[in-house]
Amino acid sequence: MMSARHFLSMMDYTPDELVGLIRRGIELKDLRNRGVLFEPLRGRVLAMIFEKSSTRTRVSFEAGMIQLGGQAIFLSPRDTQLGRGEPIADGARVMSRMVDAVMIRTFAHSNLTEFAANSRVPVINGLSDDLHPCQLLADMQTFLEHRGSIKGKTVAWIGDGNNMCNSYIEAAIQFDFKLRVACPEGYEPNAQFMALAGDRVTLTRDPREAVKGAHLISTDVWTSMGQEEETAKRIALFKPFQVTRALLDMAAEDVLFMHCLPAHRGEEISEDLLDDVRSVAWDQAENRLHAQKALLEFLVAPAYQPA
Ligand code: CP
Ligand code: NVA
């Protein structure tokens, strides 16, 4: 019964499957740009459980399901019994008898694995404290569109060793690129992910060293959702890790800059960075829609037959 395929981490899929998904994302983007109606998920329903705020993840999944002919249901812990202590496993058993897939944005990653273990239908990680794999599908699609294959390239992650950074480590393994992480002491990415990556991932305290010759520079907020009480301390500590135009100048000539957004201008990026021609943050945000449509098409069974 629990045989559904999930997407909790980049490691759940083979490298070929991941490349297939981002190529399909590009095709689905082209279909939409040409105004072609493509509704393989007619009658299908995605439940979306959000325990944290979201703009991109919610809009892209909800719009994506509608564009594929299906529907999405937005659920917050304020409205469901999950928020009143109903066990996750029970919620999973019930919901997965009613809907065709479930997307979850949560705190502890174990909430996702527990839900998935009790779900009949695919479960998608819409961000946990540990990982943000859907964002990496969009980032990898964006790099492919702008620069071709990322295999063998060098990527610099500047700032917090957070959920996004962990997902970059997984992407480095799966897409076969070198990753340099520049972070303050005490804010390193998950050691288990680092160990898995071997010499593909290196750690430094110096952003300038990290970006030397890099083909992609990526960063994220210094204070992630759930860490709000640490904000002041983090702002002071992370100051040397701000990404600026001058830092981009030290990278490869054709470097791209990405930010998963939301951005805090004046903190992790300089005020003007998203306006720099090397920034592809808006394409990257748009590609959440296309890459996740490819994921939904892959995971959710095709439409019912007419009666
Ligand atoms: N990048 C991202 O996941 O954005 P949201 O928090 O707005 O969903
Ligand atoms: N690291 C950020 C990403 C937001 C999309 C957070 O977890 O809040």
Distance N to C terminus = 26 Å
* Count of discrete structural domains: 2
Give the H and E element order. HEHEHEHEHEHEHEHEHHEH
Task: Evaluate the radius of gyration.
Answer: 19 Å
Share of helix among residues? 25-40%
Q: Which structural class do the helices and strands define? A: alpha/beta
CATH architectural grouping of the largest domain: 3-Layer(aba) Sandwich
* Strand line-up across the major sheet: 7-6-5-8-9
Strand content: 5-15%
The CATH class of the largest domain is identified as Alpha Beta
Might you state the CATH topology name of the largest domain?
Rossmann fold
Average pLDDT value?
A: 97
Helix tally equals 11
Give the overall shape. globular
Corresponding CATH superfamily of the largest domain: Aspartate/ornithine carbamoyltransferase
Query: Which kinds of small molecule does this entry bind, naming each only once?
Result: phosphoric acid mono(formamide)ester, norvaline
Number of strands: 9
Low-confidence stretches: none
The description of the largest β-sheet is: 5 strands, parallel
Structure description:
Helix 2 (56-67) links the parallel strand 1 (45-50) and strand 2. The protein has helices at residues 15-33, 56-67, 88-95, 109-117, 133-147, 163-175, 191-197, 207-211, 231-238, 245-249, 281-299; strands spanning 45-50, 71-75, 101-105, 123-125, 154-158, 178-182, 201-204, 216-219, 256-259. The radius of gyration is 19 Å and the shape is globular. The chain has 2 domains: 10-132 and 286-304, Rossmann fold (3-Layer(aba) Sandwich), CATH 3.40.50; 134-285, Rossmann fold, CATH 3.40.50.1370. The protein has 11 helices and 9 strands. The model has no long low-confidence stretch (mean pLDDT 97). It is α/β, with parallel strands linked by helices and 307 residues long. Helix content is 39%, strand content 13%. The strands form 2 sheets. It has a 5-stranded parallel beta sheet with strand order 7-6-5-8-9. A 4-stranded parallel beta sheet has the order 2-1-3-4, sandwiched between helices. Residues 54-57, 127, 135, 260-262 line the site of phosphoric acid mono(formamide)ester (CP).
